[in-house]
Amino acid sequence: MAVYSLLSSSSSSLPSSTILSISRTFSPRTSNRHIVASSLREASHLTYSPVPESTNKSSFNRFLDSCFVLCTSLALSASVFVTDVDTAAAFVVATPRKLQTDELATVRLFQENTPSVVYITNLASRQDAFTLDVLEVPQGSGSGFVWDKKGHVVTNYHVIRGASDLRVTLADQTTYDAKVVGFDQDKDVAVLRIDAPEDKLRPIPVGVSADLLVGQKVFAIGNPFGLDHTLTTGVISGLRREISSAATGRPIQDVIQTDAAINPGNSGGPLLDSSGSLIGVNTAIYSPSGASSGVGFSIPVDTVGGIVDQLVRFGKVTRPILGIKFAPDQSVEQLGVSGVLVLDAPPNGPAGKAGMLSTKRDAYGRLILGDIITSVNGKKVANGSDLYRILDQCKVGEKVSVEVLRGDHIEKIPVLLEPKPDET
Hints:
The protein has about 425 residues and is an alpha+beta fold. It has nine helices and 24 strands. The chain has helices at about 30-45, 55-80, 85-90, 100-115, 155-160, 300-315, 330-335, 350-355, 385-390; strands spanning about 5, 20-25, 115-125, 135-145, 150-155, 165-170, 175-185, 190-195, 215-220, 230-245, 250-260, 270, 280-285, 295-300, 320, 325, 340-345, 360, 365-370, 370-375, 380, 400-405, 410-415, 420. A six-stranded antiparallel β-barrel has the order 3-4-5-8-7-6. It has a six-stranded antiparallel β-barrel with strand order 9-10-11-14-13-12. Strands 16, 17, 20, 21, 22 and 23 form a six-stranded antiparallel β-sheet that branches. A hairpin with a 6-residue loop joins strand 3 and strand 4 (about 135-145). Helix 1 packs antiparallel against helix 2.
């Protein structure tokens, strides 16, 4: 209770210890009127007593003091009418949380993109040794994201590898059984499909990875260690990196390197730029300890987009091959030459049909080197990664000119590219 008090002590000619007091409480205005009325009645009891002529001056001063007290009381009483103070607001001061501009942008990005990120559980069938009952046991988990309103979900192939059943949990904790639409082992990409209502599906905005720059801020959303949606931040620390597919060992080119923490369970989750657009799919981390102390890698969205389109349309990726087996790069380097040494070119494969020679031994056990591929369509081939990169830019049914080193001379062999035998 706020109290405003004025105390005025008079001489014996006035009522003893005349006190004008106004108490201001945070109460309805009707109570304030009683306060003012009481103050006026108190003021009306002030009287002026006749005094001798010799004391006129002092009496006049006391009269002025009384008038001052009365005017002050009226002014304070009027303020009670004018001011309306809420009790809670008077005693509780709520300080709003102040965030910096970059913090607000990060919070907004997480809130807007979390509904697009899903949690994937990999279930495997196991038979009980005693009861012979078949049980579904979780053997792994990972992340993914909604690609479109038709229920397609994109993740890594190694997240779903070996699964007998898959379950996808959306941001609202609803769970759906998922079916595998298709996968690309070479690029570690897989597409699932769930039968969920369209109003529960929030496709993630797809960006571009061709114009990324080192130092650009990135954000990774996923479910590390089975925890609910988690956000980690970092920067692009490298571009055009190369890693090997966990399933086939085939190199994946133009991978994005980031220092954003990517832990087990983050695999398959999105890597976003500062505008909230998808620029990559988190796939692996290189760390001596296996924790997030190393560097993370993401498959660029430009690569993922083409693969997902083929998987959604055809259920498979039609990728051209030469149909050869080649030696490790270190073996070719020891020979002092640059290129890809053909170890085997089956006669029913594209290279075998074109007349490419394999490595073999003669009757005395001496090694006879096969053809060494040095270029394809005029593009230099120094190792196996170069050959894969060039083939990724070609199409099935396309005829390419392969330049090989055969013995001590160069030959050009036209080869008609074919799809993998298991993709026909």
